[in-house]
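Cross-check.
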Amino acid sequence: MISLTLENPVSDHLLGATTVRYQLTPGGIVELLAFPTSLADRLAVLPEFETGPHIDHLPQKWRTQTARLPEWLVQLKLAGSPEPGGHQIGRSLRGAEDVQGLSLVAHESAPFSNGGREIVTTLAHGSGATLRHVLRWHAGDAFFRVHVEFDNTSAAPLVLEYLPSFSLGGLTPFHPDEAAELLKVHRFRSTWSAEGRHDAALLEDISLDRSWIGFNRRTLRFGQTGSLPVREFFPWVGIEDTAASVFWGAHLSAPGSWNLEVSRQKDKVILSGGLPSRDFGDWSRTVAPGETFATPVAALACVHGDLDDLCHALTSAQVAAVKAQPAVERDLPMVFNEWCSSWGEPTHDYVIATARRLAATRTRVLVIDDGWAEKPAGQDIQFNGDWVVDRKKFPQGLRATTDAVRALGIIPGIWFEMEAATKGTKAYELTDHHLRFRGRTVQVGNRHFWDFRDEWTHAYLAEKLLARLRDDGFGYLKIDYNESLPVGVDGEHSSGAALLDHLFGVQRFLARLRRELPELIIENCSSGGHRLEPSFMALCAQGSFSDAHETLSIPIVAANLHRLILPRQSQIWAVLHADDTPRYFRYKLAATFLGRMCLSGEVSELSDAQLADLVAAQDFYTAAVPVIRDGQSRLVRHALGKSWNKPHGWQAVVRHTSEAVLVVVHAFALPADESAKITFELPAGSWKVTRTYALEAAAEVKGSTLVLQGHPPFSGAAMLLVGL
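Predicted model, tokenized:
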């Protein structure tokens, strides 16, 4: 046990390049701080009391105002306790009276056998409950993970209304005051086919400067309710100290509703977040005597650098799960999905003709998308729930098709929207096994939704989906999900808690697929990118980056996602058409080098020259796989503008390992005076270009700068460089 007392109030732990500090205040509050170890000598000395004209003329009894307000490393609120004051109602449950009733029991650090450590801070609550704040870090990681465990050690049930996964305080420690106009909050917005738009603002621009006397708490709370966790924002937040060049950030594992908060009451800023709360997501949970409830895990990082450094630290938290994917994924096999060619009308003959054409390329997977199952006349797409093979399209069943595809050396794949049953199916009438909200079956559009807390649902899907995959010889599963559930569903706890229990059931079924079909490649799709968050991505080999299939914005969205998911999991579509100009054909293919290549379109109609161009792109992609898989990215943009539908300027993604650099450049509408020259920095070192794709500009490496002369508008190109 490590001592943490008023005589010894600081407990520092070195986690690679980051120091985390547990600080016990004279008032008995344990606060969690983090800073780059290399900047420890730049930590500011903080004043004990406020000074200045805003204090000088107050009554004497109010002049001893503390300059900052330490915050507990754990936050909670129980049902029945007073609501927090300071104008918080409806905005946050931070600082509730329950938090003031916490007291430190123990602070312990234990090493892992392979390096790293677990740090557990145990707190007692006046109700008789015990809370454990758990921080884990493994040697070599640039991030650490945090969660909270709530033990009901009392004799009565306790109802949690708020229990975030983390609370990081003291931002920023490099200034003795509020750091006016120096702090920025970073977020990433998301909407259908436009994922990952970076949003940055000074705290003052969003009214997060402190109040003059620090009376009220100012809070930015944002998040998502329902079952599309990446519908408006990614569950990600960062704070930047622009003077110190330090970033703090968090990325939540959040399969459904979540919230994040940036708040301050006096000089310092606090980041917190995790589960939704009673007043944001209708989340509350009864914890029985003797029961333990644990929050989802949050990944946190603190870096001395820039936004790309922070994003790399947080996305690296997703690497361990990806390494557990099927061995075939190691070389990032290229995929063809026939959706943007048959448009929901696949047939055996069409699939086989496509496979024969693809056999002349490096494509390893062919996915049969929506339309393989029976649907009534007049029904267009997504007839889900019964999943009976359409024998008019596949007369001998799907096994004959998959056998023929495999005979050509290609892995067959299939599409399912497994969580929904659509109107007109027999499954739609099985409402005893569908989700309900306030006593009524949940209907969104033409969909009902299976209840994944129901073991009958798991058995039904084992018959309809798992058996189909196994018996028909599929090696790839595209799981789609195209609507959101409401704020909650009926269940044992509150509607928001019941919704999350259902989503954990969905993930339990995904884990079963992984367990029973260990070589199966699973794609996480939710109208494109609505589930690109860590807990779903951990269960899948790939994720559909977006539904942006036929737009100029594809390379923009693809580049955005380097900051939020691993490129080796980011499946980027290039929809190829026979009437594409050569330059636009290559523009689309070059975008796939920003992640996983996924082809679609009328591949059987491509000319021999176009097919040769595709093969050249795939040859380049194969050479770039080690950098796509294992590299670190930096995003450079110039005069990009706001519109992604009519983009202008240019962007470059520079991704590198210690041995090689992959550069992917896209030019959009370029002013005449800028079209001749594009320049940006490479990683430190000496590099030479060894391979290019679709490069029309003259390329020259000058020191650590790459200069492209004469890059045409609306063109894409890529280069591989190695060290000299």
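DSSP finds 13 helices and 40 strands in the chain. The mean pLDDT is 95. Passed to J.P. for a second look.
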